[in-house]
Every structure is written in structure tokens, then in C-alpha cells.
Automatic annotation (TrEMBL):
Gene Ontology CC: cytosol; nucleoplasm
PANTHER family: FATTY ACID BINDING PROTEIN
UniProt-listed GO biological process terms: cellular response to hydrogen peroxide; cellular response to hypoxia; fatty acid transport
Keywords: Cytoplasm, Lipid-binding, Transport
Lineage of the species this protein comes from: Eukaryota, Metazoa, Chordata, Craniata, Vertebrata
Family named by the database record: Belongs to the calycin superfamily. Fatty-acid binding protein (FABP) family.
Any GO molecular function: antioxidant activity
Full protein name: Fatty acid-binding protein, liver
SUPFAM superfamilies listed in its UniProt record: Lipocalins
InterPro entries reported in the protein's UniProt record: Calycin, Fatty_acid-bd, ILBP
Amino acid sequence: MSFTGKYELQSQENFVPFMKALGLPDEQIEKGKDLKSISEIVQDGNKFKFTVTTGSKVLQNEFTIGEETEMETLTGQKVKTTVHLEGKNKLVADLKGVKSVTEINGDTLTSTLTSGDISYKRISKRI
């Protein structure tokens, strides 16, 4: 299944506790929790380009399945990771202690970030 498309954030769970656990300042968390977010994914075979625009902040990462790459995290930190494809619709990576799982199911994109025992879930719909 292709991940390519634009997705608008519909709902999120545990944003505030997860961002606090990552060490983001309260002011930044308050500003970010209600912002509209658009994710754009371009998939070309095993190559991916993810662009997430939240308010005025743009986070962009490119990677190839199974190859080590440097990615920027939510906190702006650069980390080396390898993204793996599980099945045909699930991308999994370990971003320096934060497990990232992005899954496509029809027009729904679900991203779950887990750090320790706290998970942050984002559900977006294709637009």
C-alpha cells in the first residue's frame, strides 16, 4: 500500500504528557497542542520523504527503507536511525529511545511515538 498523500491531523492522544517527557518547555507545549498539522508523504519505491507542517514549523525527513539515515526529531535533535517496513503498511524506527510507528490503513494515517511507558498517538485523514 502506498503512503503517498497529504494528511490532516484529526485527533491526538497524550500530547502534553509525551512532550513533557521529552523535555519540551511548557510554553512550547501549550502553543503546539492545538495547532493544525498537515503531513505530506511522498513514496517512491523504498524511498520516502515526510514533511510535517505544524503552524509555522516544518519538519522534513527523507529515508530509504533498511538504510541508516539522519532524521530530525520533534525536539529538533538530529539522530541516526534505520526505518523498517513491517508488512505492507507499517513504518517502524527507533529515534534515540523513542519508538516511532507510522501505519496507513485506507485514508487513515496513524502515528504512534512511544518513550518509556508514555505513548503519543496522532490520527490523520487523507485530504
